[in-house]
Fold this sequence. Notes:
mainly beta; 7-stranded mixed sheet
Amino acid sequence: QVQLVESGGGLVQAGGSLRLSCATSGRSSSAYVMSWFRQVPGKEREVVAAIHWNGVTTYYADSVKGRFTISRDNAKNSVYLQMRSLKPEDTAIYYCAADRSLRVRTSPTEYDYWGQGTQVTVSS
């Protein structure tokens, strides 16, 4: 089993920045595809960004492309999401997810392990 713990969320004014971290324990995440999802009440959980274990192949949702950057440090078993130019519509609970796969995946049904989430609130 893999445990994931997110941190770094908070309240920020529109246009500001936040850096989310996801620390893993148990089985190493070095061989896992890692991703960030977000969810708001009444909406389906959606992928924000994903990164292959090679640390090079990435995916970004169109809504965050150019503003968010996903990265990972396999030596520290951690994945990060640098969020810039935040907008009120970015407000959501952000979840870290992991799956042992040979390809980047973007559907929540394709991930086996999830963190508890961290709240990001962007004020106008």
